[in-house]
Amino acid sequence: MKTAAKIISYVFHPLLFATYLVLVVGWFMPRFLLLPPTAILTFAALVFVMTFVLPVANLLMFKAFGTLSSLQMETRQERLIPFTLITIIYAVVATMFFYKVSGNVNFNKVMFIVASLVFVATVATFFLKISVHSLAMCGALGIMIPLNKAMDDGALLWPTLVLLTLAGLVMSSRLYLNAHTPREVLFGAVIGFAGGFFGMLLLF
Known about the structure:
By secondary structure, the chain is mainly α. It has one domain. It contains eight helices and no strands. The protein is globular.
């Protein structure tokens, strides 16, 4: 069970949040991304590099220089500097997409919401430790639910239900691994869902 919980935590790492969103929305609601279907994988790869590879490279650098004792960043204090840097990276990426991929206004808005969630997670970490896994999963859920209203054929219903199940699975895994307390998981879930849901209502 512990191995399964670890695998779930890695597969649904918060930094993969943006990439998974592009793949799911691109597959089930391609017109939302304003891209031809043939360009979805290429675009997802670009998002993956910007929102996963770059932050992970910086985390590995922190680990190499001894700033981090573990990539799991188990203490709140250890998260402050890496989270701040990741927030800067996401802000730069969101700005870059806004100016360089200006035609894809829908994704740019979603990327702004994602960057905002990263910022909120960082600010929250200065005061308390929260589960960023639950923040990311529930943030994605908060984004997906309003998108369902835009689909007449209900194409996003099943992906949203699967996401809801996965969110529960990820949060349970974090609790099983003793990585977070129920309070930390709950705070992450509430902050993530509120940010994703109300961000969509405000921007769309």
